[in-house]
Amino acid sequence: MRSGASRLLTRVQASARPWGMLDPRYVADHLGEVRAALARRSPAAAATLGDDFASTVSTRRSKVQELERWQAERNAANDAMARLDKKSPEFAQKRDELKGLSARIKEAEQVVSELEKGMTELLSSVPNLPDPSVPDGAGEQDNVVVRTWGEKPSFSFAPKSHWDIGTALGILDFERAAKLSGARFTVLMGAAARLERALISFMLDLHTREQGYLEVLPPFLVKDSALFGTGQLPKFAEDLFKTQKSDPERAYDLYLIPTAEVPVTNLHADEILDGASLPIAYTAYTPCFRSEAGSHGRDVRGLIRQHQFDKVELVRFSTPEDSPRQHELLTSHAEEVLKRLGLHYRVSALCAGDLGFGAQKTYDLEVWLPGQGGYREISSCSTFGDFQARRAQIRYRPEPKAKPRLVHTMNGSALAVGRTVIAILEQYQQADGTVVVPEPLRAFMGCEVLRGR
């Protein structure tokens, strides 16, 4: 029996998209170079394209050469037949030879198609190639801090963690959330609920009114094909919440979105955009749902790692030539949220071994949490090159009659709302247990200090 991932890939391939995260033909023609790039991520990533894949590449190349030779012979035979008398014995002989040649060509095309299908299926589990500017390294300990902003807040008392602050103020209720939904959920009460709502409004206003993003409100349920398009499927199926089908006739599965990146990026799936419209910039608030498979025992307290959380996302589409500049711009837009809120943070360039599956390059914005004595990620701003665009077939036409090209996609949280609540509670906490409200949020909140619900 085939695996669920294999069945999913087969179903998605049936939609006629040329699936594959990396370009199969590029990989076939530059296998050594691709392996070396993947080795920067990890030996396991490079080993994905092992001897079996190399053998398949070699077989495909020889079959393609054979096919091209036969196709040339067929073209020559057609030209020769055109000059013969249709009633002559020579014409009948050439026609019979052509039938046999056409049969061999059809068989060879089927072989090449099957080989390419196998290559594409394997490549669906191969991560993106790191950008040459990404630092080397095996994990988060090798990430490089590229800049910091602001100063760490100083306290005349021992700073508390957000779960202690929120519980004491009566605005974070973990026990009732567990009663309702189990572990990794929180009920925000009173001032915390208002603070969450204020942050969402503040972020969206900044992105739309000052930074030029178009706000969208996408569905929170998406097809499996959308998750495949942005790279969550098939590799990260265990991290997703999959719904049960109520309609047995429905040909696709629906999943709760893990991030707005999925529906917003797929807004332009299977489209050819006008090059003059690029760059395109969207922002979206959505709740996000993640099962956090594989994170057992990590961040079990507080709001850090929840099954449900709110996020404001930035997504940009650009030409390949403008892609690096657009990635830096998107990152600066996410940073501006932290600057306006007066939250001390740093920016780290992820090393090759710590990059996400589809990312070509990533900056993590890490906010200082004094109650925990460390920095924690509050946003990841990643560029994917044409990795997602190839899967989702998002293309653009540089000029009206030009051949379509794949766009480049990038996205980042701006910001993860729950983690911004954490940072405010911890960086703005006072000795009496209250929390000062950052100035930009006071008009939304209607107060200057959180004293409880």
How would the blueprint of this fold be written?
Blueprint: H1 4-13, H2 24-29, H3 31-41, H4 43-47, H5 51-82, H6 89-123, E1 144-149, H7 162-169, E2 172-173, H8 174-181, E3 187-188, H9 191-210, E4 214-215, E5 221-223, H10 224-230, E6 254-256, H11 261-265, E7 271-274, E8 280-289, E9 308-318, H12 323-341, E10 345-349, E11 361-369, E12 374-383, H13 387-392, E13 394-397, E14 405-406, E15 408-416, H14 417-427, E16 435-436, H15 442-445, E17 449-450
Parallel strand pairs: 4-8, 7-13
Antiparallel strand pairs: 1-10, 2-3, 5-6, 8-9, 9-15, 10-11, 11-12, 12-15, 13-14, 16-17
Structure description:
- This protein has 453 residues and is α+β, with helices and mostly antiparallel strands.
- The chain folds into 2 domains: 4-123, Helix Hairpins; 140-450, BirA Bifunctional Protein, domain 2 (2-Layer Sandwich), CATH 3.30.930.10.
- The protein is 41% helix and 19% strand.
- It is built from 15 helices and 17 strands.
- It has helices at 4-13, 24-29, 31-41, 43-47, 51-82, 89-123, 162-169, 174-181, 191-210, 224-230, 261-265, 323-341, 387-392, 417-427, 442-445, and strands spanning 144-149, 172-173, 187-188, 214-215, 221-223, 254-256, 271-274, 280-289, 308-318, 345-349, 361-369, 374-383, 394-397, 405-406, 408-416, 435-436, 449-450.
- The strands form 5 sheets. The chain has an 8-stranded mixed beta sheet. It has a 3-stranded mixed beta sheet with strand order 7-13-14. Strands 2-3 form a two-stranded antiparallel sheet.
- A hairpin with a 4-residue loop joins strand 11 (361-369) and strand 12.
- Helix 5 packs antiparallel against helix 6 (89-123) and helix 7 packs across helix 14 (417-427).
- It is elongated.
- Residues 1-20 have low confidence and may be disordered.
